[in-house]
Structure formats: structure tokens, C-alpha cells
């Protein structure tokens, strides 16, 4: 390549990256570009990535903390790429690669723990933002543990309070004690990625969003389904348990469930389960919700005007929509009342694993499969804390 051709190549190359020749007059960037031009082993994509990183560092004067979110996302994406490249097959190897990426990125910034806290904090924040799109999942109170199971104590019978004369004996309250064991199980998802998608032509931001959204949207949907309906998995579904209180409606359609039947469902839940009424919810399909808020009496007055307010509710139960509620048919529950936040144990193990490999036919079509799993478990504290309205 002649000097003129080299110069033209550099200008076009930088133009593609949105960098002008003036911006590379910095001594460090010029030296880096010269070094890369003489390194025949580097691919064009590698050169692009290196220049992007260095240019961004110079623009921000490498100020501590500035651009940290982009760096954290790069760490996660680069980790997944190395998992693919080296055919990583264990959580330990995955963790080693992640730690290397963290240290390489943050080694000159003096952040605590080599920046690991920020990386996982960002990952957790973005995962949570996906979960926030699922109202029912958002209601769950997560209890993180490090073991594979946890045993939680229970006491029932409730303590009585009464008036006493001076010197009188106290009457003991009768109660029952037992425990609930919650086991952690593996929830997994499989993403098929092409080699082109994993190449440097796909931006860090795009690949990061794909990993986050594709996996965690599937996880959140599965969690909602298991909370409501036992589908043969490891968890307990509220609607499918025989001990949940049932009110059978005379209606044949969800929209025709009456006010009295809703109040009957509320009455089925003992007041001792009303620990915090702000956590009381009613779960329904969006189609049911839309029909109920249009419902009018014989005089044309809205039956449930509170459904048209910003804080949508029915008789002090906040409305939570879920497309995992059963479709309208005989014997199916149209409404579920209760307090999931206080009466549903949701246990998480603070780790996840990822493996990259081929499944049948992938090799010929230039694809890789990314397997990601999360450890979770849950059990209901007391089924009597929930009631459902079923159409006849």
C-alpha cells in the first residue's frame, strides 16, 4: 500500500467511525493508529473497536466514572464473546473471564473491587427494568440466599390480648409452629445467535440489549405463568391449588361477574391476612379489565368508576394485569384476589450461568446457542390468603 493509499484508507476508515483526522492528532492516538497499521494480524473489525475505545477515552479525558455505563456494558458483551470463542462450559470459567474483563477495563480507575460491583449493579438494574414491565413479577418480594434451599419458620394460632386483674394468671395462647422449606431450581432460556450477530459489526449496545431483553423477558413471563398456573414446573401455582378460597360466579363470561361475587371473594379472605392493604391486588386479563371498566348499570352509571382512575382498583384491591391469567372458559378463574407480596415466598440465588455451544444443525447454518439460567424458588405461606372468582 502506497503512502497515498494508506492515507486515503485511514481517512475513510475514521470517517466510518465518525472520527476526523484532526481528532487523531493526539500523540497517543496517532501512535496507536500507526501501530495498528503495521500489525497485519489485526482484523479490520479489531482496528475499529480499538480506535472507538481510544477515541472515546480521549474525548472524556479518561475522567473517573465518566462513560462507566458504556464500559460496564462492554465488559458483559465481551465476556459473552469470549465464552463463545473459548467454548466455556462452566460457571467458574465464566467468572474468570468476567473478572479479567473487569480488571482490564477498570484497572487504572481505582474503583472498589475493580469495578465488579458496578458491573453487576448495572446488569441487575437493567434486568429489573425488564421485570418492571411485568406487573405481577413486580409484586413479588425477593429474598436472596446463597444456598440451594432455605427453611423458614411458621407460627399460626395468633396471640390473644385480654384484660387482667392484678395478680391474675396469664392464659397461654394456642398456636401451631412448623416450617416451610423452599428449594432453589434452575430456570433456563436458550437464545440462538448467528456468527454475524456476535461479530464486532454488531454494536456492544445492541448485543447487550438482546442478551438482557431476550432472556429476561422469557424469564419474567415464565415466572408469572408459574405463580398463577402450575404448568408442570417446579413451582406452586395459586389458581391451581385446591386450598385457595373459591367463589363460583353465576356468570358465563368474566365481564358479567357481579359486585356481590367480588365482595364475596373479599370476604373469603380472613382479616388476619390483611397485613397491609396497600399490597392487596386483584389479578385479571387486560380484556377482562377493559370490559369491567366499561360496565354500566341499568341507569347507564359506571359500575366500577375507580377502574378509570390513575390508581386502578376494585374495592381497595389494586388491579394487576397479566396475560397468564386463564382464557375465558367454563370453570376458569376470571379474578384472583390476595396479597402476593406478603404471603408468597420468592427466593433467589444471586448468580447465573451462561454457556455457548452448538445444537443440532447450528454448525452448518453458522449459528451458536447461548444458554443462560437463573436459580429461583417459591412457595405460598398460606393458601387461605387468596381467593378466586370462577365462572360457571
Coarse shape = globular
Identify low-pLDDT runs: 39-44, 58-66, 108-121
Here the CATH topology of the largest domain equals Major capsid protein gp5 fold
The tally of strands reads: 12
What order do the SSEs take from the amino end to the carboxyl end, as H and E? HHHHHHHEEEEHHEHEHEEEHEEE
Largest beta-sheet details: 6 strands, mixed
Backbone structural class: alpha/beta
Domains counted in the coordinates: how many?
A: 3
Question: How would you describe this structure in keywords?
Answer:
392 residues; alpha/beta; Major capsid protein gp5 fold; 3 domains; six-stranded mixed beta sheet; four-stranded mixed beta sheet; 12 strands; 38% helix
Tell me what the structure shows.
By secondary structure, this protein is of the alpha/beta class. The protein folds into 3 domains: 1-59, no CATH class; 70-129; 132-392, 2-Layer Sandwich (Major capsid protein gp5 fold), CATH 3.30.2400. The protein contains 12 helices and 12 strands. The chain has a 6-stranded mixed beta sheet. A 4-stranded mixed beta sheet has the order 1-10-11-4. A two-stranded antiparallel sheet has the order 2-3. A hairpin with a 2-residue loop joins strand 7 and strand 8 (317-321). The radius of gyration is 29 Å and the shape is globular. The termini are far apart.
